Structures are given as structure tokens and as C-alpha cells.
Amino acid sequence: MTADPGTRHGLPTTPLTEVAPAPVADVPAPVAADTFKAIFRRHPAGVAIVALADGERPVGFTATSVISVSAEPPLLAFSIAGTSSAWPTLSEATTLTVNFLGAEQVDVSARFATRGVDRFAGVGWHRLETGEPVLDDAPAWVRGEVVQRIPAGSSYLVLVRVLESAQPGATAPLVYHDRAYHQLGDGSAL
């Protein structure tokens, strides 16, 4: 018995026809960089100084992108532009400190955000026994181990496991919002 070319396993078959591809949904254009930046200017953020050692030379930069990731284990993250002068050192670092700034430290934040200057000049700081720089007047700081660097666009997301911390001062935090510094205080609670 020969099989009928119009059947398969005794069932009728439909001849193959060319199927048009499904229409692709319109994908919106990405948000323009200026629009994206404007949105985040309106999003307030705490201000911190990330500091690390490059041999005997201290390296640091202002960060408004520090976030808590996990309490157990204690993890934080921040982002850094791949064009940052601190990135070559950070790309190799195993440990660092994150120094959370108080409202009276606007000048420190501005200094560490300035290119082409000795960011530690005129700022009180010391080295921990493990070698990382810590700002003397930071109301709180953590020392951590870099556990991951994740490329993200033109930046990197750096994941840090916190190894130790201190809260030597109690002061209103420094906040950055809409290209200006602000402080939170008792009167700012809703």
C-alpha cells in the first residue's frame, strides 16, 4: 500500500504555504539623554564620598547613586561612569569606603565632584588599619569588599559587601535635588 501524498498517518494534510511574518509592534524610541537626566534631577538622593587607595595615593569621588541592596548579607551598590578619573583604580580595587555626608559638608561633596584637583587636599581624613581612606567628619561610613562590577551602558554598577561600619556623628544628611544641595531635618518630616 502506498501512502496518499495528501495524507499523513491517514489524516488529510494541508499543503505548505508561505506564511507572512507576524507584524512587529512599534517600539518606541528610547528616552533622550537630556530628558532622562532632567527626570533624575528631580529625584532627591543622599550624597556620599566613595574612597579607595591606589597604593599610597587616596582616590575618591562624589556619589549620589548609593543604594542599599540587602541587609543579610549587608550589600550596597553605586554606579560610576566609565569615563570617571576614579574608574581605572576602582576597576582593580578589592576594598573601599563609602562616607555618607552630613548637611554641613557641601564643600566636601563639591570638591570630590571636581575634576583635576587633589580631592583630599584640605579635607580631614585618615587611613583605616586596612588602608582605605575615611573622611574624619563623615557622620557615618562603611568599609566594604567589591564583589561585582556590572557593565551598564556607559557606566558600571558596583556591588559591595559591607565588612565594617561606624556612625561617629549624628547630623542631618546632605541631599542633592534639582542641581542644589538640601538638608533634611525635624521640620521636613511629613
UniProtKB/TrEMBL annotation:
GO MF, any single term: FMN binding
Coiled-coil region list: none
Keyword Oxidoreductase (UniProt): yes
Cross-referenced Gene3D superfamilies: Electron Transport, Fmn-binding Protein, Chain A
Entry keyword annotation includes Cell cycle: no
Pfam family, one: Flavin_Reduct
GO aspect biological process, one term: pyrimidine nucleobase catabolic process
UniProt domain Flavin reductase like: residue ranges: 40-183
InterPro entries tied to this protein: Flavin_Rdtase-like_dom (IPR002563), NADH-dep_flavin_reductase (IPR050268), Split_barrel_FMN-bd (IPR012349)
This protein's UniProt keywords: Oxidoreductase
Name of the protein in its database record: NADH-FMN oxidoreductase RutF, flavin reductase (DIM6/NTAB) family
Organism per entry: Microlunatus sagamiharensis
